[in-house]
Amino acid sequence: MLIAVINCIFIVSPVFSLPVSQQLKPSDFLQRGVENIQLGNYIQAIKNFTDVIELNLNTLNTNIGVAYSNRCLAYLQIGEYHNAVADCTLAINFVPNNTEAYLNRGLAEYRLGNYQTAVLDNNQAIKLKPDDFRAYYNRGIANAALKNHQQAIADYNLALTQTPQFSTLLADIYNDRGLVNFELQNLSAALLDFSKAIRLNSADDRAYFNRGCACAQSKDHWGALRDFNEVVKLNPNNAIAYVNRGVAYHNLGYEQAAIKDLQTAANHFVNRGGTIAYQRTVKLIETVQQQMTGKVEFV
Question: Judging by beta carbons within 10 Å of its beta carbon (0-12, 13-18, 19+), is residue 234 exposed, middle or buried?
């Protein structure tokens, strides 16, 4: 009896915000905060930008709008999304055509699960800067979360036309377009997209994982085994990859290898405190063991 791959909750790529070295154009007064963002000292950067804001509260100095926009970016980096939304909104009030503020507020709204609001912010970013691939890509991610599959694919296609052809970011876009195609059960298109993502970035285990799931869905168990092999090489702590590789082994008739992988996955789940995942994996092990009777394996 075949066992379906479980837990193929696909791995989505990160939405994009432009690197600070390109995004921020501060005056000398803001330079310390910018340098701290570039160094990853986000808490200190927030303090720097807060100082700028407090010193300019009673003026019309454009530094205050820049400071709000930059502080928003710092809040994004540490996951304080409500604060990021508030700062981006203030930045837009000071500079209504601030593309980066719309882009970053859309990203914060997406991270908060406010997908429709994220779409609206990216719409505005596109109006202000129609050739910016980030807005199309981020809108695609939000549309995918809303199950607006065709619109998401259209957005990814637009992002691909605007992204530099030698950019490693292309791999993320193909990966996420593949996820939408998979949800639409366009398995051949999904496999092509995941394969393109792998060719562009063979060090990223996400596309291997997703293609492995698509192979399993297509009953290509050897293909699934190949891809989950790559996942565990690149990310040995991916417990679900061990589960899915174990299922692939089982469906190919290699029961001992299947049990070994499932036990490895179960150990990972125990170490993480994943009780439910552990219990499901133990049930899979029991199922495989029950089906082993009378089988002869050649490994």
Answer: middle
